[in-house]
Design a protein that fits this description.
- Helices cover 46% and strands 9% of the residues.
- With 206 residues, the protein is mainly alpha-helical.
- It folds into three domains: 46 residues, no CATH class; 51 residues; 92 residues, no CATH class.
- Helix 7 links the parallel strand 1 and strand 2.
- The N and C termini lie far apart (75 Å).
- The N terminus and C terminus are likely disordered.
Length: 206
């Protein structure tokens, strides 16, 4: 019964669009929470969310929030992550958390890492090899400021590397060359940056 209830609460929203939880039910749930903490306080396998404690079974972000993210609000995750980052910087914890992250076990094949973290690790590994061509697939290929900033970092670290990114209109941004694949399968290239044309001409002459 306990296992099934735990599983159910992992998927049931605290408050849905029909406002099923009224204030009376919320007050009763909060009262039950206090009683549950009192009953479980001596168990070594139970750690509650608390402002003064760290829950080892949760991520750093979840410990900061004292709760888990809602999976039905993915559109708000970016804003939430920005607020968490601001709070971490304001508290002076960024360097400590970076060291904590670097020392954390990644698992076999990065199994302990998120998909985004695995892509970032792959990007760092690729940059260490200083390749002539680097394809940014699923990372740093968008139009948002974070992706644009990451591309600038990669460009600064690898000035001689050709970066290949983006897959749809509007994503080219500050790229030197835009290559379009037509419906007939033909590829057409267009120089977007005049300075890049001059640099390429000088490089060809050399």
């Amino acid at each position: 019964r306990e296992t099934l209830l735990t599983l159910a609460f992992g998927f049931v929203q605290t408050r849905d669009r029909l406002d099923v939880l009224d204030q009376d039910r919320i007050d009763r749930l909060m009262a039950c929470r206090v009683k549950a903490r009192e009953m479980l306080k001596d168990r070594e396998d139970f750690v509650s969310f608390d402002e003064d404690r760290f829950s080892p079974g949760r991520s750093v972000a979840e410990n900061i929030l004292n709760a888990k993210r809602r999976f039905d609000r993915r559109s708000a995750w970016k804003v939430l992550s920005e607020h968490i980052e601001e709070a971490i910087r304001a508290a002076g914890l960024r360097d400590d958390l970076i060291r904590l992250g670097l020392s954390a076990p990644a698992g076999s094949g990065g199994s302990n890492l998120s998909a985004t973290a695995r892509r970032r690790v792959a990007l760092v590994r690729a940059m260490l090899k200083r390749p002539r061509f680097l394809i940014l697939d699923g990372l740093a290929g968008g139009t948002d400021p974070a992706d644009a900033a990451l591309r600038e970092v990669v460009r600064a670290e690898l000035p001689e590397t050709c970066l290949i990114f983006a897959a749809s209109d509007g994503y080219a941004g500050s790229a030197d060359i835009e290559i379009r694949i037509g419906s007939d399968g033909a590829a057409r290239a267009e120089w977007l940056q005049p300075d890049a044309v001059q640099q390429e001409q000088r490089r060809t002459l050399q």
